[in-house]
Predict the 3D structure of the following.
Amino acid sequence: KLLEDVTLSPAMGYYLNTKGNQKEDNKGRVPDENYSREVMQLFTIGLYKLNQDGTEQTDSSGKKLESYTQDDVTNLARVFTGYDFDTSDGVKVQVLRQDGSPESYTVESKAFTQKPMALNPAKHSNVAVNFLNTSIPNTDGKVALTKALDTLFNHPNVPPFFAKQMIQRLITSNPSKGYVARVAAAFKNNGAGVRGDLQAVWVAILLDDEARSAASLVSPTFGKLREPMLRFVQWGRSFGLTSQGNSWKIFDTADAANQLGQSPLRSPSVFNFFRPGFVPPGTELAKTQTPAPEFQLVNETTVGGYLNFLQDRIRYGLYTGNVNVPQLTNGEAYTSTIAATYTKELALVADAASLVNRLNLVLCAGQMSAATKTTIITAINTKALPPATAKPEDIQNAKLDRIAAAVLLTMACPEYLVQK
């Protein structure tokens, strides 16, 4: 069901060329192969045949065994023809100029963006499909789609391929073979004979001994680097982020030099922000070819950009434009803010140790080392609070300065950056 929802998503259709993909004709047109390739390579079975523990299968000479061929791609592409945005409601929206007067044309309503793409049978290929040892005769497009996705779903590669990448995203960059095999087994059978029960998969991932044991906490090979985007989201959720006008206009944060070097829905390629097998070159991890996917985002520029961006955001939030317009135009005043409230932190701000203990719990899950805590407490105590007789606004600003320093230092420390 999830795979079908992704396949028929208007956004995915636009991104990977399923939208408007047409059957072959006698003038040399052939179905676009973009989605048929990526649905196998990236979403379901991967490039090479896998054992159930996620390791790659090889032949007697040690060569990896490919999981599909170009012929499989070409055949599967026929299944994804005939689909386009569903604008069957016929609703049109009048386009207005900046002065409020109407343009001479209308556009589709936004309703199609929230509906699965629709099939136009006249544009669907009527050539039989043969891929991954499955034959789909000339048949109704929806029937063909169901059979094709079922074929992918039932491929033996799917449980380990999906399991390993989900473990990498949620728990650790380098799960053991046993961990992958246990999660793959939960994918194959939820205990009641059901394959692909994602609730059972999440339970298997999150409650596995490898995910929760004390041994993993002290292992130098366990854990994962937090993505910059997720660090930013965690900051907002942890400290009561609010938005004036409830607009939440955060805009693009992809600038590596001055922002996060990563922005939601703005992956630079279909391969995402980083690859699951990425090994940071010139590091200790490279000596053992140990993957650390999120480190593909890390370089001298992104480290500095993250800290600079966070320093201002933690203290002052984000300034945005008029809540009633979608984009900040040239010359538009910053009239709205998205900022943290720090309610619980303000109650602890006078006691540096208590403040750091709370940040250690909320951000680091209690894993901050004694040395790091001491360093941060010492730094915070250099920012003394003014006397009670000072102006209220001066006292409040000093408290927020103190909290901002503590949060920034915590979110820059290795015990936070590496999630365990």
The first helix runs from residue 2 to 7. Residues 364 and 416 are 5 Å apart (CA to CA). The mean pLDDT is 93.
